[in-house]
């Protein structure tokens, strides 16, 4: 772009270099240009599934009604944390604007009429928060059929003879929380159904479309690149949070990822045995010590879609013998699972496979003992002492994405976030781990049945070892699966060679 | 620290390299070691003020009861945003643990007995979130007299014959929100007073203690250093968010500031006229253009205390003539205010002084016209067309800190966040600005009274100029004031010379 002299202090700002342009979300430079037709296709998928499952029930002039996230302030203050959109609404509309609603007509499965309902902004919005755009502008951005104001929603629905509004209400099994039922002035004029939609909608989110996969691949690529930068720059004596700073910077500056899907876990030393280290109470504040393992679980997010990747590696770049034993146990579990994953395979079996591989390595290395081999260890639940979490979870707009407890899932098995049979289109993390967690070891040693399988003197030498987790983001294809985070150095040799460079 | 060979894969983790040690918060390396006696002194100050103001009312065995922030998840998901403590509770106890309460006895003004009330954590906390520490441990960290569990709070109060519990309830005038009244099982056994405490507590937070000032100085130093790094590294063609990434990285990696007090405003081009640019709807996504002004408003936070600093500078490091005119108008306003600030000076007068300086520059430069000079412009409210926000606000644990509407404040004057008379101990931002905001200019041009003071053809050449804000964090001393962000390049010459290096 060239400027003539007269114009040098009056820069035009145009919306081609905002994050939105008609039909696209894009942060410029080398970042991914996301076609917002992704969300139009999502709406079509949803309506099509919902109508086919409830042909008999759904009457003419019915709508899906979604409520987007509200802008919130912290406690009594006017501090607004960076807004994050409610994810069902985002899945369907792709808009990161607070205080919106969305309406999707159920009259036509192939081309459902969609209406984005936005707040009417006061004139001073332009002073404080930016240009106020017209409904036509937003219509062109989000590829919806209508954009109307919240205050006109009832009139719009009445004019269209709306009968039933299907809204989301259902318990998210990971959190135990439910979405709140949408409220707006005039809602009492309609029949509101809070039951029928939830299962179909969460099921729809389980299967990732080609366009969603492009975004997920990009988020994974960003994380892989940032994880590598962190591994390259790690130095003994650094604080763990310096690695977090590096990851956040790399994925934001070079990949446009302003958010991470979850708080960064940068655990060195024995902290690597704390599964969700890094929160405000344990803020990645230890000094990284020579000889320690690092377990870094960090995932960049782009256009709302999150990656979730863990790298474990020795802080000084060279594995000790003990570190090799534990690392190779987890790597074998990881590679065995990924080799076995395909449609028709049950996730509980994959978890058991991972557990079996880990136990088998610990047995061979002499940490465990069992006259009848690994089967005996499994029967006596020795696995969860060292691998106390589930093998993985669905991943998408949420880090723990919805749908894990739907489909053919059985009631919760230990800490597994899903027990479903894999189908093509699912996107799931594979994250076996092996940890030396004081209170679990103490409990097992005190247990007369379990303790006899433990070679306690050897295990004692692993106290304060920390832990190892290897986490990849894997897409289930028609015939097998594809690991979206496969560009990471993963074997002992690859990691040592990568960190030496 | 040395390691013998046998120990190289079993790193001890000890709490000297956590962020807490007995009596201190510290993130290691060159970060500030904050003595947590700061909060003990805060409690003493609060009790002393509260007792002296309400000698007659407060009976024996009364307590101040505070409720800390609750851990929350986003919408229906289990995603927990990084916990931020409620600020009144933090001011008094310094703890960043969620789900706590605090009790402060009102029986002794000099040495009030303080009790931190913490949740009893389930055993699996140790697996997922980290070591569970004893009450004795937390007592040694936070220098309180007692640490008890939430479930024991009622028994504790009953045993101590508690009569009245004074809690916080009052409207934060910046947000219009109120804190929720604390609730716990058994609270009905006590007399709960929600009226008396709020004003005294917010007034107490207005005056910063020497220890609080050390933390604020550190947060300012971190921001100054990070702003300089951003200015050094800016390049035409970069995205605005790359500057945000740089600021966040610099202040976190080198200064241990994990949080910023507010969302970074990185506005280049005409975006610099959007006062609170940078939110999710305008996510610092423009390309920085040659010839444009940058207005970067970013403030690092350390141990809960926030800085709030704005730098305005030409993206290419060299001011144009127009940029000099606007910049020097704002700089003159800023320096005039800081030169005049001292106890006894009223903030409304400071705002008017800033406005007068800005208008005077615009008049001289021919953007404005007035037969009777600046006074006529002021009488006709021309100032708020170009400077539509208040001169500054209290700063501390909150970016818009509490107390601005207390003391001798008069009902809200335009957008001023305080109208108080300055007193020693106050900490306040000084942030005059001058912006060319389309809808305000259009409104003024359409106004028959205002338009005659505008030299419209000249002003039209400033359309899309954006804006300039210069924001410093200033402490009111006994005799004058001290600018905590004075190490920034601020004059045209300083900025040009700094950016050339």
What would your notes on this structure say?
Two copies of one chain form a homodimer. Chain A is an alpha+beta fold. Chain A has two domains: 36-206, 3-Layer(aba) Sandwich (Creatine Amidinohydrolase, Chain A, domain 1), CATH 3.40.350; 210-500, Alpha-Beta Complex (Creatine Amidinohydrolase), CATH 3.90.230.10. In chain A, 33% of the residues lie in helices and 14% in strands. Chain A contains 16 helices and 20 strands. The first copy, chain A, has a six-stranded mixed sheet with strand order 7-6-5-4-8-9. In chain A, strands 1-2-3 form a three-stranded antiparallel sheet. In chain A, strands 10-13-14 form a three-stranded antiparallel sheet. In chain A, helix 1 (37-53) packs across helix 2. The longest helix of chain A has 24 residues, at 210-233. Mean pLDDT of chain A is 94; it is low at 1-16. The interface between A and B is large, with 102 and 102 residues.
